[in-house]
Amino acid sequence: MDTLYSIFVEPFRQIAEAPLFFFEVLIGGLAAGVMYALVALGFVLIFKASGVFNFAQGAMVLFAALFFVGFIDLGLPIWLSLIITVMVMVALAFAIERVVLRPLVNQAPIILFMATIGITFFLDGFGQTIWGSDVRRLDIGIPEDPIFIGDMLLNSFDLFAAAVCGVLVAGLALFFQYTPTGRALRAVADDHQAALTVGIPLNVIWTIVWTVAGLVGLVAGVLWGAKLGVQFNLALIALKALPVLILGGFTSVPGAIVGGLIIGGGEKVAEVYWGPVIGGAIEDWFAYMLAMVFLLFRPEGLFGEKIIERV
Amino acid sequence: MNEVLATSPGTQTAVARKRDIGEVLLQVDNISLRFGGVQALAQVSFDIRKGEIRAIIGPNGAGKSSMLNVINGFYQPQEGSLIWKGRRLRKMRPHFAAKEGIARTFQNIALFKGMSTLDNIMTGRILKMRASFLEQAFYLGRARREELENRAFVERIIDFLEIQHIRHVPVGKLPYGLQKRVELARALAMEPELLLLDEPMAGMNLEEKEDMVRFILDVNEEYGTTIALIEHDMSVVMDISDRVVVLDYGRVLADGTPDEVRNDPAVIEAYLGVQHD
Questions:
Q1: How far apart are CA A82 and CA A160, in angstroms?
Q2: pLDDT tens digits for range A217-271
Q3: Which end of chain B is more exposed for a tag (fewer CB within 10 A), N or C?
Q4: Number of C-beta neighbours around residue B191 at 10 A
Q5: What is the number of alpha carbons within 13 Å of residue B192 lying toward its C-beta?
Q6: Cβ of B113 and A191 within 8 Å?
Q7: pLDDT above 50 (res A114)
Q8: How many domains does chain A have?
């Protein structure tokens, strides 16, 4: 009885008692969710355009962050490091298209998936061979002081990250919706054969998609790197992006955002209010449990395309 | 015999149309295509002349769609080649075909279902756009001008095919007949020299068929577009085409004007079977 009370009643009593604190927790969680969404976005872009699940997205996040922090540590100014890293990511996209994707065109998705696992190992190894495997501090002057908004105490870093992510997503949405290249990308995502018929070159499209996914990875890498330090663990945050994808749907950009927010907010709130009862570390498994529930009841995710099997 | 191949009063009767049928645009030269042990096409040769409406007919499984897929580069034949505007091509690729002005529609409609009618047709203009990625991203001078020019062009096609009212509807929501029309519009947006239509009237009711026949004839007459079409409705085929090639089991059975083909004993046998004593 006591246990039931402390699970089903007590947390809500606490929330009602101190709503301000609840919102602080929630917003902190949402901000983390935005960062998950950023990683998930890279997956969605590539999956939409080529039907390939890119296992290497996490490695691309690490790879980008390693190069960026590496150039800064060499003494280059931040803007120059950023430009060079962007060029590195563009070159990487070209290389992947030329060396990995083009020879494997028309192969089964599972083969392309295996190829991206190969890319993962390459990027992890190559990045750390060049820049070493030490944890590096990345300080690019993002404010980290707590600030008051109204009566709420918030972390300014979280707000900054959310703003960057918002601008990025809005930019991507506009680009996809209103430019001819965006139209071509959507066309390829929709129907390869029809896209070929109107003369859309698949190779160019894939290069663009991997470039954009690489740049999204760079943004995620810089923000996560500034938060946690640049280290091998960055590649593992991709694991947190998986439940986000399952929630939001593999083919939906808004889905990645909403999924990230739900998981980020949900796990923080669960940790703070239910942690003492259940024993803590909820943050570590909450996302996966939620994903499992979704797989059971709504496998296509919140915004994914419904899978209809015609008989 | 006549019930099958004769002109029915349902569709508009061919008025003797006077047009310039010019030199050979595409020569299909001795093409053979196999899938494993299945011979889809065997030593197929025929030509398509500039400005004509060329029908490809034949029973199911005769290799008609395979033929179109060879022409626009989806399938690579094991033997034979295509001669496009007098040039013998070593290999046809879909991207090359599109660049050279070969557009097509599909039997089962291949549209971008999540996109609006307008966006679908605009994809047909992709090869006409020159602005770079960055110019597009920031909508700079050339990108803006191109977008407006191409939009104007697409609007003319929309008017021509009378689909103004569905401009902003996602095509996945449209009825079948209209989807076929949008697919034709997208192909026309490419300003094709050769238009390949794979069963443009399949599954349509009489009224929709008449509309489609009218559009095909208009395209051919007003823009001088060469058209090669596969169609099962014999009355339509005999009405609108200048020349007909008949395929059966991957081979050319007959080739000639509708009248010649209609009276060819081999064709009659393939369609109706031969009488045994």
A1: 18
A2: 999 999 988 888 888 888 887 788 889 998 988 888 888 889 999 999 999 999 8
A3: C
A4: 16
A5: 31
A6: yes
A7: yes
A8: 1
B53: distance to nearest CA of chain A, Å? Answer: 21
In a domain, A308, yes or no: no
In chain B, positions 146-165, which contact chain A (CB-CB < 8 Å)? 146-147
Q: Would you say residue B14 has pLDDT above 80?
A: no
- Domains of chain B, by residue range, sit at 1-10+21-101+195-200+224-277, 109-191
- ipTM at complex level: 0.76
- For residue A235, what are the domain limits? 2-297
For the cut 60, the answer to whether the pLDDT of residue A203 exceeds it is: yes
Q: Do B99 and A196 touch (CB under 8 A)?
A: no
Give, in order, the Cα–Cα distances in Å from A172 to each of A168, B87, B135: 6, 43, 15
A305 occurs within a structural domain:
no
The separation between the first and the last C-alpha atoms of chain A, rounded to the nearest angstrom, is 50
Structure confidence by residue, pLDDT tens digits, A173-190:
888 888 888 888 888 888
The answer to whether B84 touches B136, Cβ cutoff 8 Å, is no
- What integer pLDDT is reported at residue A5 of this predicted model? 82
Q: Domain B1-10+21-101+195-200+224-277 belongs to what topology?
A: Rossmann fold (3.40.50)
**Searching chain A, which residue's CA lies closest to the CA of residue B172?**
A190
Question: Which tokens in the block code for residue A172?
Answer: 């991507």
The residue among A246, A203, A284, A276 whose CA lies nearest residue A32 is: A284
State whether B190 and A199 contact (CB < 8 Å).
yes
Choose among B103, B104, B122: nearest Cβ to A183.
B122
> Residue B52 corresponds to which tokens in the numbers above?
């004509």
Q: What is the pLDDT at residue B7? A: 43
For the CA atoms of chain B, what is the radius of gyration? 20
